[in-house]
Amino acid sequence: xxxxHATMTAHPGKGDELVELLLAAPSLPHExxxxxxxxxxxxxxxxxxxxxxxxxxxxxxxxFATQAAQTLVxxxxxxxxxxxxxxxxxxxxGKATF
Length: 98
Prior knowledge:
Layout: E1 2-9, H1 15-23, E2 33-40, E3 47-54, H2 57-64, H3 67-76, E4 85-89
Antiparallel strand pairs: 1-3, 1-4, 2-3
């Protein structure tokens, strides 16, 4: 298993657009993506986080080499007010129900 957590800060007032793009991400239906959770700060709606879990580091790398993933990254960049903060993680279990 392989995963990561990213925290992004959108330009002021662009948090909704950032969330919308992330929730339409092409990784959501991807069979090797086992966790894809988008959250936002309760105190600053322009701070958005994504937690992803993949079946392997290789599956994650292969997906992010696709044109669909590169297009998403290119669409996200103009919304961001700086560098995203990343941390590697290993999914071990849990539950998300909406």
